[in-house]
């Protein structure tokens, strides 16, 4: 694992919506450069930037048409390199978003693959033998060229799946992982990674990392595939970080990734905490964290305890935290997010309580996700400081509802969510027990609205974290002698005779 990941706190930037500097209504690389000092001042020392490669933007850039060229809407390759350099000047790191599972139908590889005549790209994608045979249970596109066959797609119909082979081959058109087509795809993706790492990026967040090998029910083929890629990275770029969108840490960490995200789908119960009918972090106190804790403990055990399991505040695919949590509920939630093992990821704007913008028409394949991708709100200037374009040109409308949060307002208020997040990040980086690779032992699992309590530990310290989102006082029996309060929000706990009395809607860190 890259050494810098141990104290990394990531800030996710959706480049379209962060800062526009040329008044076209879309964010750009220069806008990110202009706001790097803001990110550093918050306390984040690493960035994950969503896809920035050339694309027709049918899926917000997750439909790549050229892996080697920056999308002109953001700037040039030279501008992107300058972003890398400016990030490094500030002692920070940056991950690009790699989309290895599919391309756009506009990609030159796919256009060559469409041809009936055999060529080097014939097997770059997954095709059936004839137009009448659809891949069972898998979406496909067909009838769009002279080539006989149906082409597998990964999600939208304009995203043909790249060919990494099948773990179990049941049809004549299903190629094994060691066939020439799949091997050539791996070689090309390694070239893409090498190109950007040599230019200065610090690694990749990998989109749909667990889905590359098809007909792979237990993920064994995809694990093996990534295990073949990791040695090249370790040899040529030992400090490069790899973060997977997989959602199953026991598989992704075994595959060679440094970190794995918990996702809004899959087995983690992550959204039991934030995004369901009764979130655990709601002050109503009707939610439960127990299923999350059970799965988290099992995942850590399978991953070897030291694997970094990342719990993001959100991302471009989820509802905003502030859609279901409000006011001090967000502060208590961040006390949890920023004291758990694994590198935290803060989705841009979550640190000021940026809201989900309701009832928007889909933009670039966003659909229900569009409301979580609205522009960052900096101040009370034109378009809330995001862009000098006329409002109708904005990529997505800003949140124009009353009391819409801005960085400017939050920085004026010492009791704001912004300052609470900043304080928690600073505290995390001051204590070895709270860093990414520190141990964790759960004392209370937050069942049925009860407090969530855990002990973070390193070689030289132990810290007790006690979180009680519910609108009621609680009492816990906690082993140990906890005398020093490092942090509290919502009121301090009272420690007496091995019991801890916990105020409602509070979070405390004790040593």
Helical percentage:
10-25%
CATH fold name of the largest domain: TIM Barrel
**Quaternary organization:** single chain
Largest sheet: 8 strands, parallel
| Overall pLDDT | 96
CATH class division of the largest domain: Alpha Beta
Distance between the termini: 28 Å
Question: What order do the strands of the largest sheet run in, or round the barrel if closed?
Answer: 11-10-9-8-5-2-1-12
| Gross CATH architecture of the largest domain | Alpha-Beta Barrel
The total count of helices amounts to: 12
Low-confidence parts:
none
| CATH H-level superfamily title of the largest domain | Glycosidases
Strand residue percentage: 15-25%
Radius of gyration: 23 Å
Alpha-beta classification: alpha/beta
Kindly state the number of beta strands: 20
Overall outline: globular
Question: What labels would you give this structure?
Answer:
GH; 24% helix; alpha/beta; Immunoglobulin-like; TIM Barrel; 2 domains; 17% strand; 5-stranded antiparallel beta sheet; globular
What are the SSEs and their pairings?
Blueprint lengths: L9 E4 L15 H6 L1 H7 L3 E4 L3 E2 L11 E5 L6 H13 L3 E6 L9 H6 L26 E3 L7 E3 L27 H20 L3 E4 L13 H17 L4 E4 L4 H7 L3 E3 L9 H4 L15 H13 L5 E3 L17 H10 L7 E3 L59 H6 L4 H14 L8 E7 L6 E6 L4 E7 L5 E4 L7 E5 L4 E3 L2 E4 L3 E5 L1
Parallel strand pairs: 1-2, 1-12, 2-5, 5-8, 8-9, 9-10, 10-11
Antiparallel strand pairs: 3-4, 6-7, 13-14, 14-15, 15-20, 16-19, 17-20, 18-19
Helix pairs in contact: 6-7, 10-12
Give your account of this protein's structure.
One of its GO terms (biological process) is carbohydrate metabolic process. It holds the Pfam family Alpha-amylase. The protein folds into two domains: 3-104 and 182-428, TIM Barrel; 436-510, Sandwich (Immunoglobulin-like). The protein contains twelve helices and 20 strands. It has helices spanning 29-34, 36-42, 77-89, 108-113, 180-199, 220-236, 249-255, 271-274, 290-302, 328-337, 407-412, 417-430; strands at 10-13, 46-49, 53-54, 66-70, 93-98, 140-142, 150-152, 203-206, 241-244, 259-261, 308-310, 345-347, 439-445, 452-457, 462-468, 474-477, 485-489, 494-496, 499-502, 506-510. The strands form five sheets. It has an eight-stranded parallel beta sheet, covered by helices on one side. Strand 18 and strand 19 form a beta hairpin. Helix 6 (220-236) crosses helix 7 (249-255) and helix 10 packs parallel to helix 12. The protein is globular, with a radius of gyration of 23 Å. The two termini are 28 Å apart.
């Amino acid at each position: 694992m890259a050494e810098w990941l141990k104290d990394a706190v990531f800030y996710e930037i959706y480049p379209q919506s962060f800062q526009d500097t040329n008044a076209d209504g879309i964010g750009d690389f220069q806008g990110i450069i202009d706001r790097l000092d803001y990110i550093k001042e918050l306390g984040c020392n690493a960035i994950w930037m969503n896809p920035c490669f050339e694309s027709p933007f049918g899926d917000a850039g997750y439909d790549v048409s050229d892996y080697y060229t920056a999308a002109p809407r953001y700037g040039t390759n030279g501008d992107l390199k300058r972003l890398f350099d400016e990030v490094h000047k500030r002692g920070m790191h940056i991950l690009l978003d790699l989309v290895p599972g599919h391309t756009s139908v506009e990609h030159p590889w796919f256009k060559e693959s469409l041809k009936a005549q055999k060529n080097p790209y014939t097997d770059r994608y997954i095709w059936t033998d004839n137009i009448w045979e659809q891949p069972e249970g898998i979406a496909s596109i067909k009838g769009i060229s002279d080539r006989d066959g149906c082409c597998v797609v990964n999600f939208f119909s304009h995203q043909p799946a790249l060919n990494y082979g099948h773990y179990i081959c049941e049809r004549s058109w299903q190629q094994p992982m060691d066939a020439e087509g799949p091997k050539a795809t791996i070689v090309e993706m390694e070239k893409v990674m090498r190109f950007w790492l040599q230019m200065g990026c610090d690694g990749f967040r990998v989109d749909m990392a667990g889905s590359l090998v098809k007909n792979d029910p237990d993920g064994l083929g995809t694990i093996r595939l990534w295990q073949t890629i990791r040695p090249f990275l370790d040899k040529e770029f030992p400090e490069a970080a790899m973060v997977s969108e997989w959602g199953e840490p026991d598989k992704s960490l075994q595959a060679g990734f440094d970190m794995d995200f918990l996702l809004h789908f899959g087995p983690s119960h992550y959204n039991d905490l934030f995004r369901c009918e009764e979130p655990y972090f709601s002050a109503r106190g009707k939610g439960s964290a127990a299923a999350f804790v059970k799965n988290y403990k099992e995942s850590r055990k399978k991953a070897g305890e030291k694997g970094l399991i990342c719990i993001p505040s959100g991302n471009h695919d989820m509802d905003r935290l502030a859609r279901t949590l409000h006011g001090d509920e967000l502060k208590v939630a961040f006390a949890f997010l920023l004291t758990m093992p694994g590198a935290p990821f803060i989705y841009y704007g979550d640190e000021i309580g940026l809201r989900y913008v309701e009832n928007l028409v889909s933009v670039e394949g966003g659909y229900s996700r569009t409301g979580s991708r609205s522009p960052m709100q900096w101040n009370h200037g034109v378009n809330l400081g995001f862009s000098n374009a006329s409002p109708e040109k904005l990529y997505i409308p800003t949140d124009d509802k009353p009391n819409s949060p801005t960085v400017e307002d939050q920085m004026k208020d010492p009791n704001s969510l912004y300052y609470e997040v900043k304080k928690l990040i600073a505290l995390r980086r001051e204590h070895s027990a709270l860093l990414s690779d520190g141990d964790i032992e759960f004392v209370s699992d937050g069942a049925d609205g009860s407090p969530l309590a855990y002990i973070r530990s390193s070689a030289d310290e132990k810290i007790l974290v006690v979180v009680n989102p519910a609108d009621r006082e609680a009492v816990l029996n906690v082993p140990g002698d906890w005398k020093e309060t490092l942090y509290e929000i919502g009121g301090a706990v009272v420690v007496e005779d091995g019991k801890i009395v916990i105020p409602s809607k509070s979070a405390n860190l004790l040593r």
